[in-house]
Amino acid sequence: MSGALWLLAGIGIGLLLLAIQHVLAARRIWALSLSIRSLAAGEDPPSPRHPALADVFRTARELADARRSDTAAATETEALLRAAIEGAPSAIVMFSDIGRISIANAAARELFFENRDPQGENFVAMLGRAPDALRRALLGDGDELFSVDDAAGERQTYNLAKRRFVVAGQAMVLVLVKNLSRELHRQEADAWKRMIRVFCHELNNSLAPVSSLVHSGRLVVEGSPLAPKLERIFATIAERTEHLRVFLDGYAQFSRLPMPRKVEVAWRPFVDRLLALWPSVRLDGELPDDPAWLDPVQLEQVAINLLKNAAEAGGPPEQVTVSVVSLGARGVRLTIADRGPGMSTQVMESALVPFYSTKERGSGLGLTLCREIVEAHGGGLRLENRDGGGLAVHVRLQHRSAPLDGAVGTLTLTRS
What we know:
This protein is an alpha+beta fold. It has four domains: 73 residues, no CATH class; 96 residues, PAS domain (Beta-Lactamase, 2-Layer Sandwich), CATH 3.30.450; 72 residues; 135 residues, Heat Shock Protein 90. It is built from eleven helices and twelve strands. The strands form three sheets. Strands 2-1-5-4-3 form a five-stranded antiparallel beta sheet. A five-stranded mixed beta sheet has the order 7-9-10-12-11. The longest helix has 41 residues.
């Protein structure tokens, strides 16, 4: 064979070997690609045998492990965040800038949407059915305080916070609504209690030496001709001192009110005890079959105070009534009503303020103490003038299964 032919044969063999190497390399790369895809899918393929490809595969495995770890952490964080939002006591709604709802937690579903999931609906479009106060707060630029009357006619005060942000390039709005009514009442009551404690402490500090001086004065004049006359003076001072002490103890009761100890209480014996104390009072309607969940001592005192007020309202004694109505899952409503003159708007606004009283010898704490007890039970107390004259005092008590500070669906947006 000539040299030219050997040269051509060598070139041919070299090209063939080069082609074979390219094919093998392509197959290795293809196998590596499949392995990396398997890693991305969460599988665990074997490492390539080729050292260089093994290094590449090892790096890809490390990246895949890091990605899985980051994904798991992100998933866990998202789950925790969603759980926190879902269980938050405040109503939370998130929607896009055109109004499409993406998140509404349990409190928001109860407050706004009658306990159904509104995801995907238009929150802005629903505002036409919103109370005016809520609509103004939502359309405002910053945080707002607003008040509305709930389904039971009780005044509720809310704080609305609104924040704007961007998620994945889309403008979003987060709205948080919190019911502040019970918290405001508690703060108000705590302020009055602190003042009353100081007031009672200072007066009791003054009464103690007065009582001691009366006792010492009696010893000094004992056997004196003036003793009988002075005894009448000492007795009057002692009597008025004791009356003042009893008066202060009444105020101190408000500042030391214990938390209620709730138990199941059947309505029939509870109401019968009240009717035994006030024979002229009549029961209006039937009593619920389900037992109440309350502190019988505290609620009986509330009912006695309200019955006393009704009896002293100036209407016919036989027109004073007691009724108990079931509100289903919301609890029950105890109402004590009379046919007196009712209350003027000014008196109605001030009736629950401590020390306010229209009675000549009233302490101004009766209704305030009643409201304090009822709200400690998780309920509410409301005054209402009756058609035809008279006043009705409604005491709403929560159902046993209801949370203490459960939201009430007063701002429903889904009811046409």
